[in-house]
Structure to design on (768 residues):
């Protein structure tokens, strides 16, 4: 049962990265294209951003109900980057909506747009830093060590920053692929195709930097990947999909593009989970928080699972209907 | 500022901010549903215009409600990690269902707002109702979680650990019904009077049909809610008397245990001397309100150790404010119902429109006051009788800075939303003026 809940947790996180990532990336994309993409990004994101967003809430709820010590440890040790990401979430969500609904005055629109763009970048970066802090394992629970060691060091390091940059590039890439599927105008298709190619190259470099900085911080990430068969397979598959992506970009095969980009992201996440399992949060004195040590009692997990299964049956068809109504058709 | 105070204030600011948007997000879909339904029935395009005009404003409220709610779900752990570590698994069940309700609401809202041209008219109408139902459901779930903090149930507490957790019993705790229905009614009342107040102001300036229709819809909901509010509040008070006698005593600044206890209206509590100055006292009425019997004994604060008293004056003033506003809103409801029935041109009466304008913020002020009563009245406990709030505080120092930051962000947002609304309203007026 715990495994099932973990799988649902993983899927929710994955969907947040894919769907939410495409909409965070939208802001970054606008920044990269100096505003030229903003109409298409707005049109593509507006009907779905609230629904995309709820995946994050689901992740949080599963954590505090099912694995409460994971929730409380992350939010204590990584309080600062989480707070920064939250402020970014407030700013970008509000600015996006204000821009969409404030029908007057171009001048205020320009302000909302720049808030939306910069806070998208800012938020993504700090979400990445937070993830980096969780993976690296320099979290300390020894409160006698002083402020810096407990609240700053776990996230203020090369590895976490590399994770932040990696996530920014990943989200921008996902947004490019998503937006490519939403436009037919030749000029835009060309621009986004080119941008997607640049981003793929950058993503590979950023990935390499993540591994390199892990070594600098003394975390043998490369070794762990190499010695876990599922991780190795998933990384190989993600890499093998790269040429496929390139070919489909050249042919502008939009559905295939989404599928491959989604597959690659899934593989990256699977690879990460595989080396992490069964540890959920690494602690620097070795008393890691594992699945067993943090699981809520049986009765609680049972109720959680029932709620989740009930939710899945309500949500999935309804989400499908939402996407069907607004996607893959050219009515406007 | 000390860490503990900063954390409590940050929680209060974040919740007080969220609740306004949550109430509007919960209630406005119902108003829009009625407007759209009237449009389909009467074919009067004014109703369609009204539904669409409301939707423009509501979309903004929804978005801010969603982001501020997201922040809350993190803040619980960032400020009170010890509380969440123990409470999360116990009161988590309503939150897991709330997640489903949010999803349904967000999806249905997306369909409703952007689907005017893509969906069949009937489907569109009913999707509006789904938004409303899901909103009310999320309200019920989250308040059941809060009710559990007031009336903990569904676990055995042994040596600082919870055993034998039963999430279902925790959700259906002894306060869940009295709190949820009182809050849902309050949301309808507050939002209804706020919307009516804005349209009354606009109608005073420019007698347009759209404002008259808006006034009727909003006041119909608000009046029914306002009339139900004291009945439901009475139930809530009786429940508090049973479950949290110290809180009830703080409502009334009731220091000594007494038979035939008086209801205290107004007054300035003097905690040191254990008395209330300058108050009107109605003998026996507190006994009646708390236990349904004029002679019943009501426990006073003296029964409890002083370090377990909530801050009495804050709770007392807030309670008075909430009930006072409740009484005033009943008056408005009666005028509305009688007026619709008796006077043909009740909408033309300027004093009535002005009265409604005055009432615009009152419901929301009562909601804030009511939450202060509930939350501050529970102090010093975070889980009543089980865990003290100060023992749940995060070990991280410097919370005052996060408090200042969050407060500044929310102030800024409040300002922008108010400005956007006034612009939206002006545009609506200009649009109609050019038609004349
Ligand atoms: C429009 C807003 C509004 C109005 C007019 C009233 N209330 Fe209220 N009240 C609330 C809005 C509210 C609230 C904000 O919704 C609270 C806070 C927690 C809750 O569940 O509801 C609340 C809480 C609350 C509680 C505390 C429950 C607890 O601590 O568990 C009591 C005893 C009452 N109310 C009683 C009344 C009475 C006797 C009223 C007489 C008219 C009244 N309320 C009007
Ligand atoms: C009495 C208190 C509360 C009520 C009545 C309430 C009700 C609501 C409602 C109706 C919504 C959806 C409407 C909208 O988006 O504007 C909402 C949004 C939200 N609320 Fe609250 N809420 C309350 C307190 C809380 C608390 C304490 C939390 C967190 C622990 C919370 C978490 C959320 C979240 C995460 C959302 C966003 C959902 C989305 O993205 O659609 N709420 N709330
Ligand atoms: C949205 C309406 C709500 C408002 C306006 C509100 C208001 C407040 C206030 C004023 C405090 C500070 C009390 C003090 O320390 O003196 C507080 C504390 C708190 N509230 Fe609420 N509350 C609301 C709903 C909720 C809900 C639905 C939950 C949880 C499910 C919740 C959880 C908490 C927690 C954990 C604290 C901190 C601990 C404490 O001070 O007891 N609140 N709230």
């Amino acid at each position: 049962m715990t495994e099932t809940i973990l799988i649902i947790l993983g899927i929710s996180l994955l969907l947040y990265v894919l769907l939410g990532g495409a909409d965070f990336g939208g802001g970054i994309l606008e920044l990269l294209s100096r505003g030229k993409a903003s109409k298409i990004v707005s049109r593509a994101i507006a009907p779905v951003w609230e629904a995309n967003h709820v995946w994050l809430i689901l992740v949080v709820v599963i954590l505090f109900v099912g694995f409460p010590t994971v929730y409380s440890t992350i939010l204590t040790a990584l309080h600062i980057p989480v707070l920064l990401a939250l402020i970014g979430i407030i700013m970008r969500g509000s600015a996006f909506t204000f821009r969409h609904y404030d029908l007057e005055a171009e001048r205020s629109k320009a302000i909302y747009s720049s808030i939306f763009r910069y806070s998208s970048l800012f938020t993504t970066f700090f979400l990445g830093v937070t993830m980096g802090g969780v993976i690296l394992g320099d979290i300390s629970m020894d409160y006698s060590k002083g402020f810096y060691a407990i609240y700053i060091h776990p996230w203020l390091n090369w590895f976490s920053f590399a994770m932040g940059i990696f996530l920014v590039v990943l989200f921008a890439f996902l947004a490019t692929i998503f937006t490519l599927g939403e436009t037919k105008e030749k000029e835009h298709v060309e621009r986004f195709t080119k941008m997607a190619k640049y981003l793929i190259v950058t993503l590979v470099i950023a990935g390499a930097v993540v591994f390199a900085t892990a070594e600098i911080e003394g975390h043998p990430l490369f070794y762990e990947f190499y010695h876990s068969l599922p991780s190795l397979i998933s990384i190989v598959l993600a890499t093998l999909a790269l040429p496929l992506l390139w070919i489909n970009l050249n042919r502008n095969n939009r559905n295939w593009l989404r599928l491959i980009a989604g597959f690659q992201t899934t593989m990256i996440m699977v690879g990460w989970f595989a080396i992490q399992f069964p540890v959920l949060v690494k602690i620097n004195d070795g008393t890691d928080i594992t699945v067993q040590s943090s699981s809520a009692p049986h009765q609680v997990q049972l109720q959680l699972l029932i709620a989740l299964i009930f939710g899945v049956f309500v949500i999935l068809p309804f989400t499908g209907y939402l996407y069907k109504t607004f996607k893959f058709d050219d009515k406007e | 500022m000390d860490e503990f105070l900063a954390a409590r204030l940050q929680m209060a600011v974040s919740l007080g901010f969220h609740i306004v948007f949550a109430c509007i997000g919960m209630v406005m879909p119902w108003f829009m549903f009625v407007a759209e339904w009237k449009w389909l029935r009467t074919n009067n395009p004014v109703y369609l215009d009204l539904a669409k005009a409301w939707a423009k404003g509501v979309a903004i409220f929804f978005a801010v409600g969603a982001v501020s709610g997201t922040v809350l779900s993190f803040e619980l752990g960032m400020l009170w990690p010890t509380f969440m570590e123990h409470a999360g698994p116990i009161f988590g069940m309503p939150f897991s269902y709330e997640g489903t309700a949010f999803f349904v609401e967000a999806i249905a809202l997306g369909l409703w707002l952007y689907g005017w041209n893509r969906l069949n008219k009937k489907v569109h109408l009913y999707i509006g109702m789904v938004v409303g139902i899901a909103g009310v459901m999320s309200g019920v779930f989250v308040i059941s979680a809060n009710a559990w903090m007031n009336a903990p149930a569904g676990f055995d507490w042994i040596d600082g650990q919870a055993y034998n957790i039963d999430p279902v019993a925790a959700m259906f705790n002894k306060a869940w019904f009295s709190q949820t229905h009182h809050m849902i009614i309050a949301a309808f009342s507050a939002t209804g009077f706020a919307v009516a107040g804005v349209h009354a102001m606009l109608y005073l300036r420019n007698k347009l049909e759209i404002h008259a229709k808006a006034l009727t819809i909003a006041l119909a909901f608000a009046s029914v809610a306002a009339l139900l509010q004291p009945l439901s509040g009475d139930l809530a008070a009786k429940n508090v008397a049973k479950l949290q006698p110290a809180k009830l005593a703080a409502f009334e600044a009731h220091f000594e245990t007494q038979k035939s206890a008086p209801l205290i209206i107004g007054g300035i509590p003097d905690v040191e001397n254990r008395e209330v100055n300058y108050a009107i006292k109605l003998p026996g009425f507190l006994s009646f309100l708390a236990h349904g019997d004029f002679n019943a004994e009501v426990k006073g604060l003296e029964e409890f150790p002083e370090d377990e008293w909530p801050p009495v004056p804050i709770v007392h003033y807030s309670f008075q404010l909430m009930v006072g506003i409740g009484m005033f809103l009943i008056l408005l409801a009666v005028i509305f119902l009688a007026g619709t029935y008796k006077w043909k041109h009740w909408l033309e009466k300027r004093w009535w429109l002005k009265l409604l304008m005055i009432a615009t913020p009152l419901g929301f002020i009562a909601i804030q006051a009511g939450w202060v009563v509930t939350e501050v009245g529970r102090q010093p406990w975070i889980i009543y009788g089980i865990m003290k709030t100060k023992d749940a505080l995060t070990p991280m120092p410097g919370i005052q800075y996060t408090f200042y930051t969050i407060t500044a962000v929310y102030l800024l947002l409040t300002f922008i939303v108010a400005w956007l609304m006034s612009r939206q309203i002006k545009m609506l007026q200009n649009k109609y003026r050019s038609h004349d």
Q: What stands out?
A: Chain A touches chain B through 64 residues (CB under 8 Å). Confidence is low (pLDDT under 50) at residues 328-332 of chain A. Strands of chain A lie at 279-281, 289-290.
